[in-house]
Amino acid sequence: MALIRIALIGLSSRTHPSPRTTGGVAWAARAHLPYLLSPRGRARYQIVGLLNSSLAASQAAIAAHNLDPAHVRAYSSPAELAADEEVDLVVCSTRVDKHYETVIDSVREGGKDVFCEWPLAEDVTRARELADEVRKQGRRGMVGLQGLKAPVVARVKGLLEEGRIGKVVSSEFRAFGGLNERAGVPEGLAYMMERKVGGNVVTIGFAHLFDMVLSTLGELKSLKGDLHLQRPENQLKDASGAVVKTLRSDVPDLVLVSGKWEESSIMQKNATLHFRLRRGPPFPGEPCLVWTINGEKGEIRIVSPHTTFIQLGHPNESHLIEIHDFATDKVETVEWDWADWQKDLPFPARGIGALYEAFADAKNGRAKEDYVTFDVGAKRLETIHGLLEDWQREQ
């Protein structure tokens, strides 16, 4: 099969991002590049171009990451990238409010496939426009929601499909995180205090976890939200941890939702969901995440002591899957693991690598689209912005 030729948007020239730095620029280097430069990635993809904020910034990134300037082009604008006929897939890993403006030309005029990090866009209108345009042009659009590819999720889905607990009657999800501090934020993430930017604890942290639940148990037929902003005053901190100034947030930091499922092969009619995410760390000694799935014949429990985002993994990984058989009253620990090729990648790149694998399989006709498409991504964003708008009307 021919290599899929990639142009990356948002690969910073920084090769060693600060531990306090997250978001688009650092994420491209930490999560995308390791897979693309791995033997497995090189067998499927070829990086042929980079786009940053300027031609000089694009050229600096090519040099910083030891990419061959003879084979990797530096672009000065989204229009220049869109016009390059030697690009098959545009990968956008910038801050969310730059997604639309940097990829729309590549879809509408360049006829290219797009892999866009989550959230798809800063608002529902632009997300819908991107999804509609991808469909209109007959292209593929993939969103960076990697929960459905997590090995923990795959293992749990397998247990449900085997009928180990009978049909699901309820599920409860309790997590902490989204940002490491309750009321502190690093300078590079100050935008997460502004709803209008589109990237925050609700649209990113909650969305990743919520999508993982739906990818495992199916789409809900109804959903109600109960959002709260408990700590509107936030301390902006520099790289050393020193407080620079105080910011006022307009983003909820406690998200509670409840919903019901339709009957399915794994779900009882009107099976319920209760979901809770609170920003910041848990009570000392408590796990970051506990997810239970209660069935007719048993119950599954997933516990993550060290990380909220189990789709990413953690160096001290000890995600635990247990299953309680009601008939025997015995509790069994269920084994799970990353694929061997994923173990050779840093944790942030493992889930992203799985998305690249799924995209290549679909592109080359070896499998159906086993990833979150732009259409589904726009639907997810519409649901989440609906929760935020309902909360705003109540203020």
TrEMBL record:
Annotated ranges, domain Gal80p-like C-terminal: 151-302
Record-level Gene Ontology MF annotations: nucleotide binding
SUPFAM superfamilies: Glyceraldehyde-3-phosphate dehydrogenase-like, C-terminal domain (SSF55347), NAD(P)-binding Rossmann-fold domains (SSF51735)
Any single Pfam family the record assigns to this protein: GFO_IDH_MocA
InterPro entries in the record: Gal80p-like_C (IPR055080), Gfo/Idh/MocA-like_OxRdtase_N (IPR000683), Gfo/Idh/MocA_oxidoreduct (IPR051317), NAD(P)-bd_dom_sf (IPR036291)
Domain Gfo/Idh/MocA-like oxidoreductase N-terminal: 24-144
Positions of transmembrane segments: none
Protein name: Oxidoreductase
Organism: Achaetomium macrosporum
Organism ancestry: Eukaryota, Fungi, Dikarya, Ascomycota, Pezizomycotina
